C-alpha cells in the first residue's frame, strides 16, 4: 500500500515509487517554470508525478500529462493526482519518450517539462537494476532524443523547461538549438554562495529569437548552513 504524506501543512499529499524518490531537483524546477499562458503541459519521464502535481496545485488554468516508461511509477503518478482531486486536469501515459511521434500529434502541448537522467551513456556507475539505471543514466533516452521529443510536442513559442547538471550545459544548449529550441532563461543552483553550482534550470522557446536571460543564482543555504529564505519559500516553510 502506498504511503501518502503531506508535502507541507495543508498542501498536496504524495507517495513515492521505489526508483523515483522525491528530489529537490523537481521541486526547484516546478518553482522555476512559468505557467502563465500555458493550457496544456507534459512532463517527459514523470516518475511518480511530483512535477505535474506541483504545477497543477499552483494553477487551475493548466492541464498536465505525464509520460513514464516504468508502469509502476506511472500508475502511482496517476494515483497521486487522483488523491489530490486533480484527476480531471491530469493524466498519465505509460510509454517511451522516443516514440513521441506515435503517441502525440505535433504541437500538442504549450509546455514541456523534464527532470531527465543526468549521465550520458557509458559514463558513471550503471546500476544492475534496469529501472534505477534508466532513472540515473541515459540508457533509455539521450539528451538529443529528449530535445527532439520536446521540439515535436511544442508549437512555435512553446516552452521547454528542464533541470540538469552544469557540466553538460554546453551539450544541452547545442542539443536544444539543433532542434529549434532557443535557450531563453538560465538559473544556476548552488548550495552555498561560494560554491560552484550543482544544478542548472533552463527554459527554451520553440522557434524563439536568440537572447538568453541569466537570472540571479538560487542559493539554498547561508554560510552557517541554514536554509535560505528562498529555499524555505519554495518548500512552504
Describe the structure.
By secondary structure, this protein is of the alpha/beta class. It has a single domain, classed as Rossmann fold, CATH 3.40.50.150. Helix content is 29%, strand content 22%. The chain contains 8 helices and 11 strands. Strands 3, 4, 5, 6, 7, 8, 9, 10 and 11 form a 9-stranded mixed beta sheet that branches. It has a two-stranded antiparallel sheet with strand order 1-2. The longest helix is centred in the first third of the chain and has 13 residues, at 71-83.
TL;DR of this structure?
The protein is an alpha/beta fold.
Properties at a glance:
22% strand, nine-stranded mixed beta sheet, alpha/beta, Rossmann fold, 237 residues, two-stranded antiparallel sheet
Low-confidence stretches: none
Task: Give the tally of structural domains.
Answer: 1
Structural class: alpha/beta
| Biggest beta sheet summary | 9 strands, mixed
Topology as H/E string? EEHEHEHEHEHHEHEEEEH
Q: Which fold name corresponds to the CATH topology?
A: Rossmann fold
The proportion of residues in beta strands is: 15-25%
CATH class, named Alpha Beta
